[in-house]
Amino acid sequence: MDSENLAKLLGHLAPATFWRFMCAHLDGDLPSLEPSQSVTAQRQVLGQVVNGQALAQRQRLEEQAEHIVLLTDIAGQKVLCGFRSALAAPQRLVFDAQPNQHERACWLHHEAPDLFHAALNARLADVLRQSAVCYAGFVVGKGMTVPMQVLAQRQFQEALAQHLGLAVQEVAVEIFTRLQPQAQHASEVALYQICIHHNCPAVLVDHVECGVLVSARVVQCVTTYVTYEPAQGYLEVLSKNTAGRDALACLVAHHLLLAPAGKVRLGVKQYNYQSLAVARHFDISGENVAMVKVTELGYVSHTNRMLLLKTWVKDMDDLYTAAKSMVGPDFSFADHTLVYAKLSIELLKVGQEQPRTISVILRDNNKCNIKTQREKDRALCDRLLAKWQLVKEIFHDDLAPDNACPA
Q: Which residue range is the domain that position 104 belongs to?
C-alpha cells in the first residue's frame, strides 16, 4: 500500500475494524472478510481493496486515516484522555476496553464523531509535530522513479544497516507515494516519501505487574523521513541526526534514485517579515481563511536584548496599537529590525472540521514552523506566505568537496 496513514491503520487495527472504517468512507459493497483466514491474509485482502480504489476515493480515505493517526501519538493520546470524560459511562467502558490507541481513536471516530472532531481540533491546536527537526535539502535530478521492487529496497536496507552499524533485521524501510489532489491518474506521482526506521539501544522501563513494580526491556526505534519530488528533482531529509543528513541523502540518491554522486544544495528559503513592522493588508481572496492577524513581534535592541510584544487574536486592538499603549505613543516596530513574528490565520469551517487557527512562526532569517504542520495546512501556509511576499529563496552553489557524495 502506498498511502502512509492508511498503511499505519492497516498494520495497527484489527482487520474487522479496518474493514468497518473502509465501509464508512467508501461507496458500494466491499468484499466480506473470511474469518478462517489469518490476520496477515485478511490484511493483504484489505490492502488490495484499498489499492483498487479510484484516486479520489483513496485520497479521501487517506485524509480520514490521517485524522485518526493524529490522535495516536503521545500528544494525541493525552487529548483523548481529556475528552474521555465526555463519554457516557457505558461508552467509557467500551472505549477503555479497546486494545490499543489506534483502536480507541478509530472507535471514537465511528461512535462519537462530534467528540472525535473536537478532540482532533484540540490536537491540531496543541502540539502538531512542533518538535524541532533538522532539515537538509538537495537537488539530485528530475523525473527519477523510486523502485518499488522488494530487491531494490532490500539492497538499500542492507546499505543503510552497514552505514548505521546495525544488523539488517534492525532496519526497516517503507516507501509511500503522495499524490496531488488535482492528479487524475495514480501514475502521476507528486512525490515519494521514504521512511527509514532503525532500532535504538535497549532500555529498562518500569511498570506494575500483579501489584509489583518490575522492569521490562524495551527497544525503541527512530524514524527519519526522506522525501523526493520528481517534478523538481528535490530530495529533502528530516532527521535529528544533524551530522548524518548528507550521508543519508547520498545513500538514497545512489541506491534508490541511481543519481550522480555529486549534489547541489536545495535553495534555502528566507523570510521577508520586516514588512510586518507596520500594519498591512493580507490578501485572503479565494482562500478558506476568515481572518489574518499579527499577534507577536520581537526585535533585538542595540544592547543585544530582545523585546517580544504579544496580543491576542480576540483583542479589539491590533498589535501596533497595543504596542504604543505598552511602550509609548511614539513607539514603532519600523524603527527596529524584527527577529521574530507570529501570524494567526483563522480558517473557515469546512465540512465536519470546526473553525480553527493556524499559527505561523517566523524566526531569524530562515526558520519557520510550516514544515511542522499537517499536509493541507502546510500547502496553505506555503501558498499564503508567497502570496503576501513574505518568502524568498536563496540558491547555493555546488557543495564543497567535503560534503559531496562519495563516488
A: 4-126
